[in-house]
Design goal:
Length: 141
């Protein structure tokens, strides 16, 4: 049952994320806002977070770089943790670190909601991820 529910359904949602977006579910942190990560976490609507699933949208279910469309992965995984593991959704936070995308289809899509920039890499990327990790530790020690 999980292969039917998870992989094709979540994959389809990731590929069409900007087309089907209705409301915010989770936290989107883009590289240009890297100096505001602490503020963004303080403003998160969930106060007692115990489980965070994070993606940068690069390797999505064999579909490749989906940019912020990768948010379907944290949402899907946390839904499974709730359904199968009994973790209350009140304690979960899906996050996408928007580091750009190298997917020309996403970059040229007028509805794409992510940062329209080639994906950052190397030291810039690692420093951004590390800053996010440290900010999470400060917010939810």
């Amino acid at each position: 049952m999980m292969p039917i529910i998870y992989t094709p359904t979540v994959g389809e949602a990731c590929e069409h994320f900007s087309d089907i977006y209705r409301r915010a579910r989770g936290l989107f942190i883009s590289y240009p806002n890297r100096d505001r990560i602490d503020d963004m976490l303080q403003n998160a609507t969930k106060q007692n977070v115990k489980v965070i699933v994070v993606t940068d949208g690069e390797r999505i279910l064999g579909l490749g770089d989906q940019g912020i469309g990768g948010m379907g992965i944290p949402i899907g995984k946390l839904s499974l943790y709730t359904a199968c593991g009994g973790i209350s959704p009140a304690y979960t936070l899906p996050v996408v670190l928007d580091v750009g995308t190298n997917n020309p289809q996403r970059l040229n899509d007028p509805l794409y909601m992510g940062w329209r920039h080639p994906r950052i890499s190397g030291e810039e990327y690692h420093a951004f991820v590390e800053e996010f990790i440290q900010a999470v530790k400060r917010r939810w020690p």
